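ASSEMBLY PREDICTION REQUEST
Request ID: AP-0331
Submitted by: J.K., bench scientist
Number of chains: two
Total residues: 421
Priority: normal
Notes: Please return the full assembly, not individual chains.
Input sequences:
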Amino acid sequence: MKIFRPGDLGVGVRIASTGICVPPRTITNAELVAAGCPLSEAEILKLSGIEERHHVDQEATSDLAVAACRQALARAEVSPELVDRLILGTVSPDHMSPSAACFAQAELGLGQTPVFDITASCSAFVYALDIGARSIATGDQAVLAVAADVRSKFIDPEDRATSALFGDGAGAALLRPGPVGTGLLGVGLLADGRGARSVYVPAGGSREPASPQTVAQGRHVIHMEEGPKVYLAAVEGMLGTGEALLEAFSMSWEDIDLVVPHQPNKRILDRISRLARIDPDKIIVNITRYGNMSGASCAVALEEALRERATEGQRILVLAAGAGYTAGAALLQVDAELLAASRLAK
Amino acid sequence: MTEKAQLLERIREVVESLADCPEDSSAPLDVDSLTLVQIVEELEVVFDIRVRPSDVVPDNFASLAALAAYVGARI
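STATUS: Completed
Returned structure:
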């Protein structure tokens, strides 16, 4: 695992504001069953904890990312021209190329600011925070770290393992320089490519270009080949990176006030609570309303933690794990300005 | 009843609460991935063990007897 602590370089990085975008259309478990989901409504709820999720109509990933970024910029009162970099984490870009970030950049009016996509699946937001923090540490003044996904367009509605899980959404954080020793204290990341085919969309890339045959075979949608291993790997990834990051700061779970995990499945969150002996009340849970929004899940959950639960000075640990496999953790100490920005009705 | 037999019986109770269970403890367990996840969770709670991703292999989960051997080595 690689850990970045801005304080080690004598610099401070803070999250100045956050923004989210969740499409208005909700999909209930009953609607999924009517569309061919092989699970019953009761099974969906029991196995995943999801009651409903949000899906786009015509929007694409960059549309959600733009809305989240606009909210973050408005709350921090930073104009788009001042943004030095935009990092967009997604596994569902608008097109195979160019990046979704380019489409977002034009829509946001960022000028010729460098922008790029990163692919880290459900760990995308934490990966984007890492790169954003490093950008601030090396001179950037305002960096947008965004995670956005429209997984709904890549689902087989009749697949038992995946059809009920995914929702669409986006979450953004505006990073800026700050005092050393507070704000975004550190980020840890890891990956294990041995799990690369455990959850993937097989066709549409250079290994297996899209064709009438790949579509007919359903290889353009999400395949989860080894559900139990993916489930266990997600827990190991989040707990492992969380514990390693805490150790780097000589902290333990007791020093953390709120845990903001990726939301793959309610049972996974319960297992994390049980294995790490974390008070369940400390864990932010929104999967019941949003499903698994891939990289956006923990970004949206972070905004909810800041808006509804956090107080000044509290420590938040963001945890993520995703396909690849990827995993990451970010440690944040909440400042008053971030709280105020989070509670603006913008 | 030996400890080994008691463990096997307890594991049978766990699996039977979630899926159809063969009478023969060496017979293959026919469960889908979602049920397997529930079995893992229940075994962890009942026996206070932690199942790692690398442990989820046929050798450990193919039958009740295999499960008993796996859990027995961890308690």
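REVIEWER COMMENTS: The first strand of chain A starts at residue 2 and ends at 4.
SIGN-OFF: pending second reviewer
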